[in-house]
Structures are given as structure tokens and as C-alpha cells.
Amino acid sequence: MAFLKFNKSELVNLSYSLRREIICANKRGAYCNTSIVTCNTRRYLLAVPLEQYGGDQYLLLSSLDESLVVNGKQFNLGIHCYGDIYEPRGHKYIVDFGADPVPQIVYKVGGIIFVKTILISPDTDQVMIRFTLQSAPSKVQLNLKPFLAFRKVHDLTAENAEADTEGKEIRCGMSYCLYKGFPELNLQLSSQKAAFKSEPYWYKGITYSDEARRGFACKEDLFVPGAFTVEMNPGDTVVFSASTKEVAPRTLKQKFESCLGATPEISSYHDQLVHCANLLKRDFSGKKMITAGFSWLYTGLLRETLYALPGLTLYADGNTKEFEEILDNLIAAEQERLFRRTTQIEAPLCLAGVLQQYIAFGADPRKVWKKYGPTVKGVIESYSPGVRKEVSLTPDGLLWAQKDRTALTWMNAYVNGFPVTERAGYQVETNALWYNSLCFATEMERRMSPSSEFTAKWEPVRDLCAKNYQAKFWNPQKGYLADYVDGYGQNMQVRPNMMFPLWMEYCPVDDEVASSVMQVVNRELVTRRGIRTLSPRDNDYKGVYEGSQTDRDLAYHQGCTRPWLLLPYTTIMLRMQGPSFLGRINWLCEGFFEQDLGKHGVGAFSELYDGDPPHEPHGAISSALSTAALLGIQYLVEKYDEDA
Length: 644
Known about the structure:
With 644 residues, the protein is of the alpha+beta class. Helix 6 runs parallel beside helix 10 (350-361), helix 11 (365-381) crosses helix 12 (428-448) and helix 17 packs parallel to helix 19 (624-643).
């Protein structure tokens, strides 16, 4: 697709190209993350999950430098940053880049046209890079120099005496394991004529510019054991493989072509969303889970999985089996947070909403309740007095959440150990989710089991919540809902949390209140890149997500937009305005596709944006929440058209 291509003038401009990253990933959780000119700006080439370390991800191969030797003259195609110096500067030879559907970089050196294509094996911890000499005036020697790390993805390494720098020869390559407990990294080429020259050396002070920009530790030493060499004639291809298992070199070309052929073609924006959704669904050790975002957000998080699950499965490709498999794995893994204690106080209550979406998608309500009803009821019971220390069920049927120096909601950034938005007390979205859960559970239980003790216990609480919710949060003078209510009264900061009661299937406020709330949301929070987390009129508002870690954390929930909040927003507005709002949805979403797929994460959907125009992307370069929300919006629009 044209929007995933870059021209030479863009590629050679490092201030432009280094801010655009690519992600290659597979279902096991292995991934590559680099810039479009393959200069690493973050700490992560081949990162793999290791079972011996609980599935945590470790970086084995940091980068691979290529150089071409023709008529005795060497041209280095690699690029590394050392402080403020870039050396070598191989990006100057790049003339084209495309990512449909896998990254492909074209180099031009005099009369030589040389193409590099990067591919992650879908079912093994293996990255394959195919090199094609499309044209050349004569024979060319290709040199490949691997940079080894063997460290956790979030750490950095330095030259040390403990590293085992002695490799062993394997078929058409070499194998290395720098430290005990790690798997061997097998570096192999498809050509029987490939040779390896040992030249062990530590490259010191390699700098990751994006880490430096964000105020993190950013320099490390990487070990280079030597270089592979192979001669190529015009038209030749060679495949390089880095894998935790030794492979048969003669099969590499065939496997590369097979994996490439199995990669779905991307011919629409929906295809791009589905492609990203597939990368964010991980299947490791037989357990399917959702990764919250590449490259550093974790896999299997409760809140993020529940919010993203319908979009990444049901709305992406209608895969109900995968929906249930991921949900089952999440419930099994999150017993503590679901039923006993958590700092994600509203997250367990999201389960009801997920099941409501599943039923609306077409699932049999009786089967859904038979399978998941005990979990939903168990979650509600866990909010009974005395069960959770971080939350109290008050006599008015509402939930009071408080824990000193702890952010108990999704707005959970910290600075120097203190939450930026603690929001202790009655939280508007937590209690909306609570009311929705009570209504859903009691209705389903009464339908399936009319004489249930559960309904007898919780229907009065539901009715109290319905009676007191609007009175607790509505401020008629301001014309919108309080963000939270504590011992000092209503906190009237304008935040998107006030949309949650309107988003829920069971809404605890009347239509007049809902209309007034959305007028404020439209006036102060809506942007073309998502919904702001705080009104620009507020003194705490931070419109740009830049600077030190502290600066960014202060902006994270104090003005930055969230694309995922567009899903509740569009759901509410479609209910209120019907077909007249469809054009507005297109206006809100088109920028993610038409302008931003070539920014930040190329072909991916970013976690957050600046609250101020021009709304530049930041955060995780491929976000499960953002991807799922855009898929959900597409589904809503299509369903609305079908119903109409």
C-alpha cells in the first residue's frame, strides 16, 4: 500500500527516519523492533520469550551490519549511533522502503541494486533476512557482522569477562551462547559457500537515541564475534537466519518464501488493523494471551486484555473460539486480581461489559452465563464488605476506593513514588462499571435461576446504586459529572471518565444528564487523534508528551489523548445522533490511516498522542487498545449500516 512506502529524501534524513519504527512479530512473542533505516533507536533485533525465565523476553541479536565489497572497495550499509556520531552511515545508500506486508529496504551503490527483506518465522524464535542482489556490474562479496546482546529487553549490557565469546561451528554458520541459562543463538546462511572469519570485538558506547530522548539509560557495549562472507552474482539471493534452534541451511530459502507467501496481503485499512491485531495476540507454551503493546508493554494484563479482547478477536475476524480461549486463560491467570485484591480496582468489573459485547455479537446468552456467570458473580461478591482492603461497599450501594499513595484506576502514572492522579474516593467510571455489572448479573441470574440467593442479595444493592449514582456525581451548575467524589466533595476536573456511565449497556443517569455530559466532552476533550485525558482549560493540563520521564508521566493522563477512548465516544454518539454522526466518525478516524501509518510505528497504531495540535503520536508504537478500538468502530459503523 502506498502509505507504507518512503522515498530516498525521507530515508536519508535521520531526524525523519529515526522517528519511524517497524515491528515484526510472531504469535510466540518473538519480535524485532528497529527503525526504517535499521538503526536501533531503542534497546530491542531478535527478542524472544524464554520459558526458563517465566516467558520473559530477552534480546539475543541486537543488529546485523551488511557491507558490500566490489572490486576491492567496501561499502558499509549498517548504521549505529555513538553519542552524537553515526557510524557507519549506510542509510545514505537507501533509496526505497516498503512494508507490505513485511519490511523491505532497497540500497543503491553505484550500479548495484541490493534488497534486504526482514521476516519473523510465525512459529519459531527465528528471524530471517533475505538479501537479493538485483543487479550489479560484477560479482559482489556480502559481509554480515552480527551484534550480540544476550540480555533482558529492558536492560543494557557492557563488556565483561563472564561472557563466553567462544562460538562453535555449525552447518553454514556459527552458534553462540554468551551466558549460562540462555539458549544458543544459531547464526546460519543458506549458501554452502558462506565462510566465517573470527574477529571478536566489543563495540562500546552504542547509543539508542530514543531512549536518550526519553531520559533513560541509553548506552551499551555489544559483542561482535566476526563476520560471515559470501559471494553473490547478479540475481542471487542469500537468506540469513538467527534462531534458537539449528536449522537445515538448504531449507532456508524455501522456508522464507513459504512464510512470506503465508503472510496475508494487505489491501485495505481493515487488513492493516487485522494484521496488527494478529501480532498482538501471543500464543506461548500453548496459552493465548494479548500483548498490551510493542515494544515494552506486558502480555496478559487484566485491564488491557479485557478492553482489547472483543476488538482483536470478534471485530477483527469474528473468531469466537479465540475470544473464549484468551478469556479463559486470563481468568485462570488472574484469580488474585479478580477475586481478592488489585490496584486495578475497576478492571475486574470490565468482565461484564466484555460478555455483553460477546452476547451482542451473537453468542448464546444461556451458554455464556453458564460458563462465565460464576466468575462474574464471584467478582461482584469480592466487593462485599471486608473482602478487598482497597475498596469499600458503602451503604448507598456505591464503591469507595482508597489506598494511600496508590492510583487505583487506569490513570495510574507515578512521579517519585507518588501517583499523579490518585483519585481516591467514589470514582465515576468505577461505579458505572459496578452498576453495569450488578444489572447484568442480576438480570442474567434471574432469567436463568429465578430463585437465586445471589439476586436476592444483590438486587437491593443494584437499586441503591441506581438511586444514588446520579445524585453523587451530577453537578447541575457545571453541567457534567464529577470525576470522583472524596471527603472534600466533588472533583470537577473535566476528564473522559464521565463517558463510562453513558457507554455502559445499563446507564445510571438520565438522558438530560447524558446530553449535557457529551456537550462538555465534545467541547473540551475530543480531538482528531482520540479523547483528551484532561481539559485544556485545566491548570494541570499538559499538552505535549515530551521531555524527561517526569515530564512525560505528568502529561500521560493530564492531557494526552487516547485513541481507545474513541470507541466509547462513538458508541455513545451513535446512540444519541444515529446516522447523522457517521460522517463525524470518518472525520475522527481517517487521520490514523491516512496520515499516521507512516509515523512512529510504521503500519501500526500508537498508544497515545499529544493533546495539543498537531497531535503527534507517542507511547507504545503498536497498541492493543488503539488497534482494538479502531476495529470496534469499524464494526459499529458496518453494523449500523446493515441494520439501517
